[in-house]
Amino acid sequence: EVQLQASGGGLVQAGGSLRLSCTASGLTYDDYAIYWFRQAPGKEREGVSCISRSQGMTYYADSVKGRFTYSTDNAKHTVYLQMNSLKPEDTAVYYCAADLLGHRCTPNGPVAITTLYDYWGLGTLVTVSS
Q1: What is the pLDDT of residue 79?
Q2: Which of 6, 21, 24, 83 is buried deepest, with most CB atoms within 10 A?
Q3: Which residues of 101-129 are buried (b: 16+ CB within 10 A; e: fewer)?
């Protein structure tokens, strides 16, 4: 059974930090690309960060650029999203998604059509208080 387990969310004050993790199991980890999305209350899901191996780039949404960092630990089949200098507007459920083709990360962000991704994690809630 394929699972993407997102964790690390919680309640933090503005200016604080959190590190989200997304651990993949039941799939050949090296064959998949992992993407980070978030969905704030009343808003559409938006792409936050991803890595394009083919283009050799890491994408960050403008709203998180300079504050969030995407990293990987291949030995642990885990990707991370280090979030620093958090703001109340970062409050959202954060999701990770996996894609076998690995072509969903573009210079404009992850492709927005959620059904194109092979697997989704359940999400982890990040709440930033002012």
Answers
A1: 95
A2: 83
A3: ebebbeeebbbeeeeebebbbebbebebe
